[in-house]
Design goal:
By secondary structure, this protein is of the alpha/beta class. 47% of the residues lie in helices and 16% in strands. The two termini are 37 Å apart.
């Protein structure tokens, strides 16, 4: 069996950074070293510098594929495997193969090549990585159809970023080194904006850094390495919700910044003890501060704060832990023993612990006693201390008034002491106080004095009553403490759910956010959600090998798998709430998908609204002008001069022509049935559509400059509506273009769309009025009947949007107005021959192709 080949991936942030160029350079270097290197497939896009590097390298001939009358060429997988080179150069790893190929995707071809024992060097752009696809679309506005699973790229033996600064890439683009001249302006003003390129570059570097971190975690897990590796500083800041939180966060941020690439994590442990001194408003402000400092906020629920804090730090592979000096005063610290800080230091292992002083340290600015919360060790210590101190003091005071008739008052006084001790410390301090006070009462106040002899049975009954009273009061106190603990637990759970909801509202994948917070809240190793068909949809954490998960059904949509320690009953109650929210998030995602299917109806409604808004005005004004002209000719025709008659006839002619144009528009969209305009979308070739447009406007040679490439792909549109839209735009441009400067009609492809630009050199439109011109009946100098009003730009915009396109106004570089009409490329023609044109930088679905250089 052949040894599997090694995969090396050259990763780029955008087309044009030089991936293909570097791949071919590496091929020459390896060839010069005596390696058997072949070029399995490469896309030069007719770039001379890239094509020149093919000289001296062996090329495996491509195979041809016929698809819908188009001859396509693809990598010959069988020929590459049969050739059996040591290294194969395979460009564009995310490429979609032509229909009829052995595999749907090129990365699947590469998998077979690797299985055959051949090393592969390939290229891919960050926009094609599946998990980043939606992020790239948000940044650039361009959807990507060609994607590759993250696992394929992550499984590569070597990933290398081919980096180029955004401005350098724009300079290369402007010099014509990436796209032909006809595509440069559209590319610079759309996908290749400086902000877009900067964001894509950062996204690439962050993804690679995350991959390096995953690789390190995977290596440590495979080799059983538990010790901390300080490959990257991770600073965990413990927040209690107290006033010292901001001080700790800023100190932690400074510690993380010293390493240059440190990561800041803030964690709040919510528990029955921790919540007693938590200020929700302060915690919310600190959570906001964490985000401003570039860190991330986390919250876990734990009964033991130091244990939960150290467990979170170790799970996060933290290198440093920042906590505040205890807010307890010295007396409290002496009575209750070591606090959170000492325990954290003892349990932290090789994690450095920073204990930061603050204004509230040592009990400053805090009340000395709190009655809220559950019974803690501190409360019990207080109870014993009260019994030991208050008992002797009460005895001294009562001996001053001792008499034969004062026994009842003395007994009630000690009973009150027992009740107070029970309220403070619970059952055990109360029992201690009851026994101690009973013995003291018998020894000091019951005859015979100064002996423990019980001379009367009633004295024994009194002592027994003291104990019973202590037990009863203590039971009541313990029940109250349990209810307080439950209330605190509920508050912690509510705060956790608020954190989860906040993460969802602030953006991102709601399902993934819920799964991540579930793992953090319960201290689990990993959490995975699987759909009913068994396909993994979301995972957070590293799943241990051979681990048996706890499975929780999520409605009828799938199963939530929990890896880690078993959950307690209280945790399962909280988990059920999270599962309910997860089910709701999945349902919301389904509803969003369903809502997208209603898009065509919305588009139809936009066209209908624009049509109805325009018809009333368009009919009324030219009809009134024509009627007035004809009436004047009939009533005073014999008295009018020839010049006046000609002017009135011209007015009537222009008005009637406008009415005819309006009726033509109405006839063109006469597919209105039951008040709904049906948009008939189909492939439309602009080259075939332009001649009838020019004939309709009676445009003579030289009146309009036309620049439409011969290889322009068809668009998805309604041919009648598109024709009306272009007629309106050209008519508007001709109206405002000065003599000697004809309007220009040009077209180009970018981002899965065809952009049709109609530019004039007239007075232009100020920026603050560019939106107004698309309102019904807004027109520069709307006083001239000869100018016509037609359906106007408002209806044109409605037509375009109804076909799924956009219409926007821009400035003409030399002065004037440019109307940019963008329509999606017809998806039926999405598969284009790889060698058809250097301008083929955009797939028909809108994906910027991974063109290497």
């Amino acid at each position: 069996m052949a040894v599997r080949g090694r995969l090396r991936v050259l990763l780029g942030a955008a087309p044009g950074v030089g991936k293909t160029y570097m791949m071919l350079e590496e091929g020459h270097r390896l060839h010069d070293l005596g390696k058997d290197v072949v070029v399995a497939v490469v896309e030069t896009h007719e770039r001379e510098a890239t094509a020149a590097l093919l000289d001296g390298l062996e090329l495996v001939p491509r195979r041809t594929v016929e698809h819908r009358g188009i001859t396509l060429t693809e990598m010959d997988l069988d020929a590459v495997i049969a050739r059996k080179p040591a290294i194969a150069l395979v460009d564009e790893l995310a490429h979609t193969n032509a229909p009829g190929s052995a595999n749907a995707k090129r990365w699947q071809d590469v998998e077979q090549i690797l299985t055959a024992g051949i090393d592969v060097i390939s290229t891919v752009n960050v926009q094609h990585i599946e998990s980043l696809n939606d992020v790239v679309e948000q940044i650039t506005g361009v959807p990507q159809r060609e994607t590759i699973p993250d696992s394929i790229v992550r499984s590569a033996d070597q990933i290398e970023v081919v980096d180029l600064t955004p401005q350098s890439l724009r300079d290369r683009l402007a010099d014509g080194q990436v796209y032909p001249a006809a595509r440069i302006d559209a590319a610079l003003s759309n996908y290749f904006r400086l902000g877009n390129l900067t964001a894509l570059r950062e996204l690439t570097l962050v993804w690679l850094a995350d991959e390096v971190d995953h690789s390190l975690q995977r290596y440590r897990a495979e080799h059983g390495i538990q010790e901390k590796w300080e490959a990257r500083e991770r600073v965990v800041v413990a927040l209690t919700g107290g006033p010292e939180g901001e001080t700790l966060l800023r100190r932690g941020a400074r510690v993380a910044a010293r390493s240059g690439s440190g990561e800041l994590l803030a964690v709040h442990v919510a528990s029955q003890d921790g919540l007693r001194e938590t200020d929700p408003a302060a915690l919310a402000a600190q959570r906001k501060l964490v985000e401003e400092l570039g860190g991330s906020y986390h919250q876990v629920v734990g009964t033991d704060i130091p244990e939960a804090l150290v467990a979170f730090a170790k799970a996060s592979n933290a290198t440093q832990l920042v906590i505040g000096v205890s807010r307890r005063n010295r007396l409290t610290a002496f009575l209750t023993g070591s606090g959170v800080g000492a325990t954290v230091i003892r349990e932290s292992g090789d994690i450095d612990v920073h204990i930061v002083s603050h204004a509230a340290a040592g009990g400053r600015n805090l009340p000395r006693f709190r009655r809220t919360g559950a019974l803690s060790v501190r409360r019990r210590v207080y109870g014993f201390a009260l019994a030991l101190i208050a008992g002797p003091l009460l005895t001294v005071a009562l001996t001053q008034i001792r008499s034969s008739d004062s026994l009842t008052a003395e007994a009630l006084s000690y009973q009150l002491l027992v009740v107070v001790v029970a309220l403070v410390g619970g059952i055990w301090p109360a029992l201690f106080a009851a026994v101690l006070s009973g013995l003291t009462l018998d020894f000091v106040f019951v005859t015979p004095y100064n002996t423990l002899t019980i001379g009367r049975p009633t004295h024994l009954i009194a002592l027994a009553l003291y104990v019973v009273i202590a037990v009863l009061v203590s039971v009541v106190v313990d029940q109250s403490a349990r209810r307080t603990r439950s209330a605190a637990r509920a508050a912690a759970e509510s705060e956790l759910l608020v954190t989860i909801a906040g993460s969802v509202i602030r953006g991102g994948d709601a399902v993934q956010s819920l799964i991540s917070r579930t793992r953090e809240a319960f201290g689990l190793t990993a959490v995975r959600f699987s759909a009913d068909d068994g396909a993994v949809q979301n995972v957070d954490g590293e799943i241990p090998a051979d681990a048996v998960p706890t499975r929780v059904p999520v409605g009828e949509r799938g199963t939530l798998e929990l890896y880690g320690d078993d959950l307690q009953a209280g945790d399962r109650r909280l988990l059920s709430v999270i599962v309910t929210q997860l089910d709701a998030a999945l349902e919301h995602a389904d509803l969003s998908t369903a809502a997208q299917e209603v898009g065509p109806l919305e588009a139809t409604d936009r066209v209908r609204t624009a049509l109805l808004a325009a018809v009333g005005h368009d009919l009324r004004r030219p009809l009134a002008a024509a009627t007035a002209a004809v009436t004047s000719l009939r009533s005073a025709g014999s008295r009018l001069s020839s010049r006046d008659k000609v002017e009135l006839l011209d007015t009537a002619e222009v008005s009637l022509r406008n009415l005819a144009d309006l009726l033509t528009n109405l006839l063109d969209v006469s597919r209105v049935q039951a008040g709904v305009l049906a948009v008939s979308l189909q492939p439309v070739d602009l080259e075939d559509l332009l001649p009838p447009v020019l004939d309709e406007l009676a445009i003579k040679p030289g009146e309009v400059t036309i620049d439409v490439p011969d290889d322009l792909p068809p668009v998805t549109a309604d041919p009648v509506l598109l024709r009306r839209a272009i007629v309106n735009l050209l008519s508007n441009a001709l109206r405002y273009s000065p003599a000697g400067l004809p309007p220009r009609l040009s077209a180009s492809t970018f981002g899965g769309q065809v952009e049709l630009r109609v530019a004039d050199h007239g007075p232009g439109v100020p920026d603050d009025r560019k939106e107004e011109i698309f309102h019904p009946f807004q027109r520069t100098g709307d006083t001239d009947n000869s100018a016509g009003i037609g359906l106007g730009l408002a209806l044109t915009k409605g037509f375009v949007e109804g076909m799924g396109g956009t219409l926007a106004a821009d400035d003409t570089p030399a002065g004037g107005l440019t109307m940019v009409l963008a329509l999606p490329v017809d998806r039926e023609d999405a598969v284009q021959p790889p060698s058809q044109s250097p301008a083929d930088d955009v797939s028909a679905a809108g994906s910027v192709k991974d063109d290497g250089r």
